[in-house]
Design a protein that fits this description.
This protein is of the alpha/beta class. It is built from twelve helices and ten strands. The strands form two sheets. Strands 1, 2, 3, 4, 7, 8, 9 and 10 form an eight-stranded mixed sheet that branches. Helix 2 links the parallel strand 1 and strand 2. The longest helix has 21 residues. It is globular. It starts with a helix and ends in a 6-residue tail after the last helix. The relative contact order is 0.18.
Length: 321
């Protein structure tokens, strides 16, 4: 009997070893997205998900988990197993700012997130409802100066890049307006189009179709150079506003401690996906740029953004509502 028991144990060990050595991915991979469907982060995740399935042979399933500026999704992700089957498609707010804004040490990207690669970079655009009597950024800021506290801005949530840029503008230009927070880009844009709010600093990937069809009017973009999809819209730098350089990144993350062979495989697949002409074209049409960084490059980029924007969060005393 002892012989058979030992033999059974040996077989079980061999089977367990074979299962653990099974090449990744052997089943569906979940992509947690910290916003509702329809925004720029969700769009980026969906653009790359199908291509990752083509390259790696398993479905990459979008799992939208909005709320608390991305904190809910970020905390869920940080607690996930580091086996490569739960990944995070995040942006500035959920990755960098949500724990600070919510005053909770739910996670820290430096400790809990393993950066794999950037996905896209998207400038923001100052856009106004057609009822706003301003045809340029200067006219808009002059209007805000004449009527402090009367204009309302649509924000996709506390601590997003949109919100922080708004706070920076108010602080640097001595202006004041009311910020109305929503749970993501889509509902914020809907109320802007409907005239419930007057303006937004919006990702071009979200605002572009509404700018094109005249639902909103674009006044300036935050990129260093004019955006090909909006060639007639000047940059803030051109207009003499020097503190408005801001972009929303989207990036792919694994939980800390994920095996290096999985990280390498993911990065190589993503680097190929982001060079795919069809993918590049989809991002171009959204007013975004497909950008693949190495894990070390992406980590360094995140550290620079953290150093730039966390002081804005603290100076404006931004807190979750």
């Amino acid at each position: 009997m002892r012989f058979f028991a030992l033999a059974a144990a040996a077989i079980a060990t061999l089977l367990a070893g074979a299962a653990s050595a099974e090449p990744w991915p052997a089943r569906n991979v979940r992509l947690i997205v910290p916003y509702p469907p329809g925004g720029n982060v969700d769009s980026a995740a969906r653009i790359v998900a199908d291509k990752l399935q083509e390259r790696l042979g398993q479905p990459f399933i979008i799992d939208n988990k909005p709320g608390a500026g991305g904190l809910i999704a970020g905390e869920m992700f940080a607690k996930s197993a580091n086996d490569g089957y739960t990944l995070f498609v995040g942006a500035n707010g959920p990755v960098l700012f949500a724990p600070e804004v919510n005053k909770r040490d739910a996670y820290r990207w430096q400790r809990d997130f393993l950066p794999i690669t950037s996905i896209s970079m998207t400038p923001l655009v100052l856009e106004v409802h057609p009822s706003v009597q301003a045809r340029s950024a200067k006219e808009f800021f002059d209007l805000a100066r004449r009527e402090p506290g009367k204009l309302t801005m649509a924000s996709p949530g506390p601590g997003t890049t949109n919100h922080l840029l708004s706070e920076l503008a108010q602080s640097s230009l001595g202006l004041q307006w009311v910020t109305v927070h929503y749970r993501g880009n889509a509902p914020a844009t809907n109320d802007l189009i409907g005239g419930q709010v007057q303006f937004a600093f919006d990702q071009i990937s979200v605002g572009l179709p509404y700018i094109k069809n005249g639902n909103v009017r674009a006044l300036a973009v935050t990129s260093a150079h004019r955006v090909p999809s909006l060639p007639d819209v000047p940059t803030f730098g051109e207009l003499g506003f020097k503190d408005f350089d801001a972009q929303t990144f989207t990036g792919l993350f694994a939980p800390a401690g994920t095996p290096s062979e999985i990280v390498d495989k993911l990065h190589d697949a993503m680097a190929a996906v982001l060079k795919d002409p069809s993918v590049v074209d989809k991002f171009d049409k959204l007013g975004a740029e497909a950008v693949a960084m190495t894990p070390s490059e992406f980590t360094a980029y995140l550290a620079r953004e953290d150093a730039k924007w966390i002081p804005v969060v603290r100076k404006a005393n931004i807190k979750a509502e």
